[in-house]
TrEMBL record:
InterPro entries registered for this protein in UniProt: NAD(P)-bd_dom_sf, Sc_DH/Rdtase_CS, SDR_fam
Domain of life: Bacteria
Pfam families, A to Z: adh_short_C2
Keyword annotations of the record: Oxidoreductase
Family membership noted in the UniProt record: Belongs to the short-chain dehydrogenases/reductases (SDR) family.
Protein name (Swiss-Prot/TrEMBL): SDR family oxidoreductase
Length: 256
């Protein structure tokens, strides 16, 4: 497929959590599909290496070191996109944080606060700055990363479940508020996906993956690229009448 006919040809896209996992996969997918990508995450070396990889292939990419819990840093990342490319057309708000599986009554307040700060307030902060840039450009598309834990309760992960359910509500509220102004807002809800968070869980509980497979009609772990492909479609004009949707990319986990 030529860049001119690609899914995101000519679009400018901001991707958070872009230094690894689903975010890094999205950087590669979005850029290959024709978008100029602005990559945001905390780890500068990983961002720089990924930008070098993409630009070495003739793709358009830059980065902005960003902690999504810092409103000022989020504002700078959005401004970096507008300053460099003149507008912002799409955003994949993917930065997230998970913690070890702990019963609710044993969870430390600091852990709860950190999960909510990154997974919920971080998404809100991103949208708060992305939306004005998209309104100035005449519209756009936002995709937020929720989780199957945003659709059903998963064991001993109450703060994570709370944060991801809240992302669903925030997505629907924004879709309702800005649809008439040309901004679509959707969410993806990944199931078990090969990511740093899953690797950390498996290091502690190696049995978890097999148990999740047993509960999934497609009994396997997704590649990050499979989630990224869904986000790219939702950001594209081919999803032009889709807003307020939460797309499970979970191998059927949530149908059980």
């Amino acid at each position: 497929m030529s860049v001119q006919n690609a899914l995101l040809s000519g679009k400018v896209a901001l991707i958070t959590g872009a230094s690894s996992g689903i975010g890094a996969a999205a950087a590669r997918v979005f850029a290959a599909e024709g978008a100029a990508v602005v990559l945001a995450a905390r780890r500068e070396q990983q961002l720089a290496d990924l930008v070098d990889e993409l630009t070495g292939k003739g793709l358009e990419a830059c980065y902005a070191v960003t902690d999504v819990t810092s409103d000022a840093e989020v504002a700078r990342a959005v401004q970096a996109a507008v300053s460099r490319y003149g507008r912002l057309d799409a955003a994949f708000n993917n930065a997230g944080y998970g913690a070890e599986q702990t019963p609710l009554h044993l969870m430390e307040q600091e852990v709860f606060d950190r999960i909510i700060d990154v997974n919920l307030r971080g998404v809100w902060s991103c949208m708060r700055h992305e939306i004005p840039a998209m309104l100035a450009a005449g519209g756009g598309a936002i995709v937020n990363t929720s989780s199957v834990a945003g659709l059903v309760a998963t064991p001993v992960a109450a703060p994570y479940v709370v944060s991801k359910h809240a992302v669903v509500g925030l997505t629907k509220a924004a879709a309702n508020e800005y649809g008439a102004q040309g901004i679509r807002v959707n969410a993806v809800a990944p199931g078990t996906t090969r990511s740093e968070m899953i690797e950390q869980w498996l290091a502690i509980r190696p049995d978890i993956e097999a148990r999740l497979h047993e509960a999934t009609p497609q009994p396997r772990t997704a590649a990050p690229e499979e989630i990224a492909e869904a986000a790219a479609w939702l950001c594209s004009d081919r999803a032009s009448f889709v807003t307020g949707a939460v797309l499970p990319v979970d191998g059927g986990y949530t149908v059980r």
